[in-house]
Write a structure and sequence with these properties.
Elements lengths: L13 E8 L2 E8 L22 E5 L5 E9 L2 E3 L2 E6 L2 E4 L15 E3 L7 E4 L9 E7 L2 E10 L1 E5 L6 E4 L4 E4 L2 E5 L5 E6 L2 E2 L14 E4 L8 E9 L2 E19 L4 E4 L4 E4 L1 E7 L3 E6 L2 E2 L6 E2 L5 E4 L8 E8 L4 E11 L6 E6 L6 E7 L11 E7 L8 E5 L10 E7 L6 E12 L3 E4 L6 E4 L6 E10 L2 E9 L36
Parallel strand pairs: 3-11, 13-20, 21-29
Antiparallel strand pairs: 1-2, 2-4, 4-5, 4-9, 6-7, 6-10, 8-9, 10-11, 12-15, 14-18, 16-17, 16-19, 19-20, 20-23, 22-27, 24-25, 24-28, 26-27, 28-29, 30-31, 31-34, 32-33, 32-35, 35-36, 35-37, 38-39
Length: 506
C-alpha cells in the first residue's frame, strides 16, 4: 500500500507505510495534516498502477516534500525523481549538495546519495494537474498527482428543469473547479430551508446528487447545495418546475337563455395546472372564435351577447397544457318567445259590465310553443281597478286560429284599453312572454242604477226601510220596485207598504 504524501512543515508528525513486493521495497512517507487521503496498490517490478496515482493536495505557494525510499535485494537504492508534465517525462537533476541544477532551481533533495526526499520550494500553478514520479534504475515505480487546494466552484443552473408530477427525478450539480473534489461538508436547501438528511423523497445521501422517487407539485422551487473543502465554500443551484395536468371543478348544464339576452356560462371553476392551461371552446365540434358576440378571454368561461336562435348547441371547453387535456360539454338552449297576438278586436258592443274579445294566434308560436295568453284591461279612471285574465288557448298549432273570451267585472260607462301577451313556459326560466299586442280601446255602456246600501229603522212602530242607489248609467232613475214576502205562523201575509221617493237626482 502506498500512502499519499503531503508536507506543510518538517516539524509535523511523520507517517509512513511499507510494502515489500518480490525483491523491491518502496517506502513512501510524508509530513502534513492531510496525508492519507488516497491509497493505491503498485506491483513491482512490472510497473506502476497508473490508474490510481497518489493524489497530493497542496495549498498554493506552499513548499512540499515528498519521500520515496527504494529497496532492492534488501538494500536502499538511489531514488530518481521525474517531473511528468503534459505527458512528457523530465528527470529532475541535483547537485551533490541536493540543490536543483539549471532549470530545477525550485527543487531541493536530501544530500545523501540515495536522495530519498525531494522538496518543491514554491508549489504554484505550474505544478497543478501535473505529476512527479519516483523510482530507481530508470524505472518510475510510483507517481504523485500534484494538485493545488482550491475552493469548489459549482455550476449555476438558471434554466428551470421541467418534470411531470409523479415522475422520478435526480439531479447532479457539477463541480467545475476546486480540489479536493469530495468536500469536507455539504448541505442541500429548498427555497432557503435546509433539507433534512435521512429522507427518502428527496434523498441527499449521495454527493452531489439529489434524488426524488416521485416529484410533487409542491416540490417546485429553488434547490441549492453549499459545499466546503479546505480551500473554501461555494454554492450551486438549480430550479425545479413540476408540471401537472389541468384541473378544475366542472359545471353542469344545460343553460337556458332567451333570444336577445346575454349569457355567460362557466365550464370549470378553480382552474389550475402547470403550465397554465389554454382554454379552447368549440360549438358542435366547430371552433368558437373570440371576438364579436363571443368572448372567451376568461379561461373556462364563455360569454355570448345578443343571443340568437342558432346559438343553440353543444359547447365544449377544453383545458390543455403540455401534460394533458381535460374537457366538458355543456348544452345551451336558446328559447324563442312567441310573437305578439294579432288582430285584437272587440266583438259587438261592449256591455256595461262585460266585453267579448277576439284575436289571432301569433305568427311565431315560440320555442317551446306558447301555452297561455295574458289579457290586460286597464283604465285611467280613478278608483277603477285594472283586470288581468289568463286564457288557455284551445289551439296552439294554427297561427290563424281565432281566440275569443268574455271578460266580466267591468264598470259601466268607462273607457278601457286592452292588450294581450302570449306566454311560453320553461321550467328553468319560468314564463317567457311575447311582446304585447296592439292596444285596443273601448267604452262600456251605461248600466242600471248602482245599489249601494239599505237602512232599516223603527218609526212609531212602523218599519222604515231606506234603499240608497247611485245611478251610473247617465239616465235619470225612473222606477223603484219593491218586492216583499212575509212568512209567519198565522199565515197572515198582508203587508202595508208606503214608498216615498225622497230624491231621484242623486
Amino acid at each position: 500500500l502506498l500512502s499519499p504524501c503531503l508536507s506543510h512543515s518538517a516539524e509535523r508528525k511523520m507517517r509512513f507505510s511499507l510494502v515489500a513486493v518480490t525483491s523491491v521495497l518502496v517506502l513512501l512517507y510524508c509530513t502534513g495534516e492531510t496525508c492519507g487521503q488516497t491509497f493505491s496498490t503498485i506491483i513491482f517490478p512490472e510497473g506502476i498502477d497508473g490508474a490510481n496515482p497518489i493524489i497530493s493536495a497542496v495549498e498554493n505557494t506552499e513548499n512540499v516534500t515528498f519521500f520515496c525510499e527504494v529497496f532492492r535485494d534488501g538494500e536502499l537504492r538511489q531514488t530518481q525523481w521525474t517531473l511528468i508534465k503534459d505527458d512528457a517525462e523530465t528527470p529532475v537533476l541535483f547537485t551533490s549538495e541536493g540543490l536543483g541544477q539549471a532549470g530545477f532551481e525550485n527543487y531541493e533533495a536530501s544530500p545523501e546519495a540515495v536522495r530519498t526526499n525531494i522538496t518543491i520550494l514554491v508549489f504554484d500553478e505550474t505544478f497543478d494537474n501535473n505529476q512527479i514520479g519516483c523510482g530507481s534504475g530508470g524505472e518510475i515505480v510510483s507517481i504523485f498527482d500534484l494538485r493545488i487546494i482550491k475552493p469548489p466552484v459549482l455550476l449555476q443552473n438558471s434554466t428551470p428543469i421541467a418534470i411531470i408530477e409523479g415522475d422520478p427525478f435526480s439531479f447532479y450539480i457539477e463541480q467545475t473547479e476546486g480540489f479536493p473534489i469530495v468536500p469536507d461538508d455539504y448541505e442541500w436547501s429548498f427555497d432557503g430551508t435546509p433539507i433534512s438528511e435521512g429522507g427518502s423523497n428527496p434523498n441527499i445521501s449521495i454527493y452531489p446528487v439529489i434524488i426524488f422517487t416521485n416529484v410533487n407539485r409542491t416540490d417546485s422551487g429553488n434547490y441549492s447545495i453549499t459545499v466546503s473543502n479546505e480551500g473554501g465554500t461555494s454554492t450551486g443551484f438549480f430550479i425545479l418546475n413540476v408540471l401537472y395536468a389541468p384541473e378544475g371543478v366542472p359545471q353542469t348544464g344545460p343553460f337556458y337563455v332567451v333570444t336577445g339576452d346575454d349569457i355567460t356560462i362557466t365550464a370549470y371553476t378553480n382552474i389550475d395546472g402547470n403550465p397554465n392551461p389554454t382554454s379552447i371552446w368549440t360549438k358542435d365540434n366547430s371552433p368558437v372564435t373570440d371576438g364579436g358576440r363571443f368572448n372567451t378571454s376568461v379561461p373556462g368561461q364563455l360569454t355570448i351577447t345578443t343571443v340568437i336562435s342558432s346559438d343553440t348547441g353543444n359547447y365544449t371547453n377544453t383545458l390543455t397544457n403540455e401534460v394533458l387535456s381535460i374537457e366538458i360539454t355543456i348544452l345551451i338552449c336558446v328559447i324563442v318567445p312567441p310573437s305578439m297576438p294579432r288582430s285584437v278586436t272587440v266583438v259587438g258592443d261592449p256591455e256595461a259590465e262585460s266585453v267579448v274579445l277576439s284575436w289571432l294566434n301569433p305568427i311565431n308560436l315560440g320555442s317551446p310553443v306558447f301555452t297561455l295568453f295574458n289579457v290586460f284591461i286597464y283604465t285611467t279612471t280613478e278608483g277603477i281597478s285594472n283586470i288581468t285574465r289568463q286564457v288557455t288557448p284551445n289551439n296552439t298549432i294554427d297561427t290563424d286560429y281565432n281566440n275569443t273570451v268574455t271578460i266580466n267585472g267591468l264598470k259601466p260607462n268607462i273607457q278601457y284599453t286592452v292588450t294581450i301577451i302570449a306566454i311560453s313556459y320553461v321550467e328553468q326560466l319560468g314564463e317567457v312572454p311575447s311582446e304585447p299586442s296592439d292596444e285596443v280601446v273601448f267604452n262600456t255602456s251605461s248600466g242600471a242604477p248602482d245599489f249601494l246600501s239599505t237602512n232599516l229603522t223603527n218609526v212609531n212602530g212602523n218599519l222604515s226601510v231606506i234603499w240608497y242607489f247611485r245611478h251610473t248609467g247617465g239616465v235619470g232613475l225612473e222606477t223603484v220596485t219593491v218586492d216583499c214576502e212575509r212568512e209567519n205562523s198565522s199565515g197572515d201575509n198582508s203587508l202595508s207598504i208606503i214608498i216615498n221617493c225622497v230624491s231621484m237626482s242623486n
